Amino acid sequence: MVRKKFSKKEIFIGISCTLFALLILSLYVWHQTESVNLGYDSAELEYRVLQLEKEVEELETVKSSLLTLDRVEDIARDKLKLSEPEEEQIVYKDIEKRH
């Protein structure tokens, strides 16, 4: 049985094609891995956005409850010791309408 010998050129071409195929496969696997990681990151960020939106809604509710007129008036009267102005303390100013 006679074995065919490959020339250096044929060996170089075979190794080059094999390395090129391995490079392409490695890049494909890397790309797929990065795509999956980006998907996980995206889902995590979307969840975080939903959490923050919920927190904003809760804070808006707290804000509106803190700024009710009754509460502000109670703080003005009790903590700041403010009272309604006397009639002589009120100054009226004529405002002309400009056209």
Calculate the terminal CA-CA distance, rounded to whole Å. 112 Å
Structural Rg: 39 Å
Mean pLDDT across every amino acid position: 92
Q: Strand share of the residues? A: under 5%
Low-pLDDT segments, ≥5 res: none
Sheet/helix structural class: mainly alpha
What pattern of helices and strands is seen along the backbone? HH
Number of helices: 2
What portion of residues is helical?
55-70%
Walkthrough of the structure:
The protein is mainly alpha-helical and 99 residues long. The chain has one domain. 70% of the residues lie in helices and 0% in strands. The protein contains 2 helices and no strands. It is rod-shaped and about 125 Å long. The N and C termini lie far apart (112 Å).
Give the tags.
single chain, 99 residues, 0% strand, rod-shaped
Could you outline the blueprint of secondary structure elements for this entry?
Layout (H helix, E strand, L loop, with lengths): L7 H59 L2 H10 L21
